[in-house]
Amino acid sequence: MNAVRNVGIVGAGAAGLATAVLLAEAGTDVVVYEAKPSLGALGSGITLQGNALRALDRLGVWDEVRARSFPFDLLGIRAPGPEAPLIAEMPENKMGGPGYPSAAGMYRPDLAEILLARARALGATVRFGARVTAVSQADDAVTLTLATDAGPERATHELVVGADGLGSAVRELIGIETRPEPNGMGIFRAFVRRPAEADHLELVFGGPCYIAGFSPTGADTMYAYLVEDKQDRQDMTAAEGSRIMAELARPYGAHWNGIRAQLEQGVEHVNYTWFTSHVVAEPWNRGRVVIVGDAAHSCPPTVAQGAAQSLEDAVVLSDVLTRHDALTDEMWAEFHERRVARVTTVVEVSNRIAGWLLAHERGDVPGMHRIISDLVSREP
User: Fold this and answer.
1) How many DSSP H helices and E strands does the chain contain?
2) 337: which DSSP letter?
3) How would DSSP label each residue in 80-103?
4) What is the pLDDT of residues 95-110, one digit of tens each?
5) HEC sequence for 116-173
6) Highest CATH level, class, for 6-71+107-180+276-377
7) C-alpha separations of 152 from 8, 134, 138, 163, 320 in Å
8) In the predicted model, what is the mean pLDDT of residues 260-271?
9) Beta bridge partners of 69
10) Cα–Cα distance between 371 and 140 in angstroms, integer?
11) CB 284 within 8 A of CB 292
């Protein structure tokens, strides 16, 4: 039972490829349109909480993710300063259930490659260099106008999923006015070598940055990050980013001494982005077009749920599409009931923690994390 026979998905990020995997697995004809000429995921790391790992298992890629990531169950908190005393070391909750680690860090492009390979293996078509410029709907179909190297094209599908990220063209083309708004913070991320003893997530709050942290991603790799007041660094080169990160990291000790030494020599993979926040109010669909992932919601990564919530969108959307026999109001109501409130809570809690950091206030961060842990431990 499938509500639709063919689907066009705009965007080859986590939400788009995960949706493609699950729909193709269910026998739906799927075409993914990606504006970029190649996969092009940002070359740093990603932390996947347990509920993200549970979703990846549903996608059939957990074994490969486990082999190419670094699982951990501990969170370390250090004080700022050259001595960097350890304040606490605590086990993290297993939000995906007892069969998964609390979290896993991995190289972001590796995750993208795994999802792309899985989608193609199940029969989904993925087209790069195909940018959506217009969307038009009839009672039973959606037509996309595409800009490609060969010229403009049109493609018609029974359903279109807009999974094209923060700057979603689909969101704008279907008339949704909600946009991601910067929250005042910016983050450097650098992919660096990992010493053997840096085997779990570690955070420092305070000092010249709001947060200095790192997450292991492999046998000898990890990604380090620094959160500052947002700056205009959009055209920053990797060399410039390495230099700025090294200077910002100067007051931090412990493992940051080794990280800083690498940054001073220059690191190949450094990127910088602003934190944003938004939630599109229900409904996320306009007729036969629906948005998911970062197109529908974003939040500061203060509870590390961005990728997890995008993957959950894909799981729930695919579930309702394959259990209903038509795109009915009942089907859309079920989708929104299972997603909007859950995502909204994640965004609100993430913003609450970020707000305390921006105001240099001591808030109940453990309490906020418990709220999220209890929420996402339940299946979406």
Assistant:
1) 10, 20
2) H
3) SBSS--EEEEEEPP-TT-TTS-SE
4) 999 999 999 999 999 9
5) HHHHHHCCCEEEECCEEEEEEECCCCEEEEEEECCEEEEEEECEEEECCCCCCHHHHH
6) alpha beta
7) 17, 11, 20, 21, 33
8) 93
9) 106
10) 41
11) yes
